[in-house]
Amino acid sequence: MKHSKSHVFVSRLMKFAATVVIFLCTVRALTTVAVEVGAAEQPTTEFGKQVFEKRCSGCHSINRAKEGPPLAGVFGRKAGTVPGFSYSSALKASDITWNEANLERWLASPESLVPDTDMSFQVGSADERAAVVVYLKSLK
Ligand code: HEC
To answer: Which domain holds residue 19?
Structure first.
């Protein structure tokens, strides 16, 4: 009789321990998911800089003209207005002031936003577009 009581106690104890372990794993899994979702919603400037270096720096520098115009201060600037850069007439006539929404459209498809532009390059990934726009915004 005594033996069987302690047996029940041990088995309850093990069930309790298992419940605690499962509970801790669930908390940990949920926390990890929350951290990842947060990271995806807020693209970091660091990732944007990497995208810029990989995809844009062949044609753009921050402070000097290459095949494309310099991009420092582009956010909030009127399109096609860096003095001395020879823009397409299309971009000069576009009457766009660069903001999040039109930069996003521009990078998805320059030709759709400004037909006959000289920039023939698109960024296919929405994550990369969002990140590089955050980076452009940080360039003073
Ligand atoms: C193949 C060369 C090339 C690549 C790659 C390229 N661009 Fe351009 N970009 C240009 C050219 C050329 C222009 C000028 C377009 C015109 O005059 O119509 C331009 C213009 C721009 C403008 C408008 C600037 C202004 O002063 O109004 C922005 C913003 C821009 N590019 C951003 C980017 C970003 C961000 C990337 C990378 C994701 C990129 N570009 C990749 C060639 C390129």
So the answer is: 1-42
